[in-house]
Amino acid sequence: MQSNQLRRKYPNTKRMIVARGGKRGKTSGRGGKGQSARAGNKRRPEWRDIIKRIPKLRGRGKNSHKSFQEMATVINLSDIEAAFSSNGEITPTTLMEKGIISTRSGQIPYIKILGGGEVTKAFKISGCAVSGSAREKITKAGGSIANIASKILIKAKTEAQMKKAAMPKKEKAAKPEAAAEAKTKKIEKAEKPVKKEKATKAEKK
To answer: Residues 65-110: pLDDT tens digits?
Structure first.
């Protein structure tokens, strides 16, 4: 190593002439001693007015009316006509395999088929929404469209609930008879003679 290759271990640090502690303490930027040093100083926070003009980022889509409904991936009939053969099954998975659609955030998106283009082949479409014009063209070509299953899931009944439903219900006519029997028992109890209380020791004397 030569003398011109020597380097300092610790670089120069800026000496803080004003302020207390830390990198920048009180008035280390040499501020103050002006309007801020006078009695009764109370400047209006003008920056607050600028902040209040900015709209608050609240609600869905950060201050925008973004819909909760999933946006459909649109496909025309001309794309299906070119990619599939006759009597081909068209589903979201087959469309993805052919490369017509791509996944959205790792999932197969909601698909809608529009009536752009002509159809000469019969297709079996399922799991996709179809527009009115596209439906007419597909049915004329001899194709079929299966309705999309609803997303509402009905809870399956347990075996105990099924047995309870199958059991015959008790007749309501038996209830008045039971009520009449209870009334007769109450009357019999009321008619019984009340036993005389034993005389106290003071009365005997």
So the answer is: 777 777 888 999 999 888 888 888 888 888 888 888 888 888 888 8
Cβ atoms of 106 and 125 within 8 Å: the answer is: no
Q: Which residues make Cβ contacts (< 8 Å) with residue 119, sequence separation at least 6?
A: 77, 80, 81, 137, 138, 140, 141, 143
Strands 88-90 and 144-145: unpaired
Q: How far is CA 190 from CA 1, 53, 180, 186, 187, in A?
A: 122, 83, 16, 6, 5
Q: Please, what is the end-to-end C-alpha distance for the chain in angstroms?
A: 131
* pLDDT score recorded for residue 120: 87
pTM of the predicted model over 0.85: no
Range of the domain at 81: 73-145
CATH of the domain at 89: 3.100.10.10
Residue type, 35: Q
Number of domains in the chain: 1
Examine residue 196 and state whether it is found in any structural domain, yes or no: no
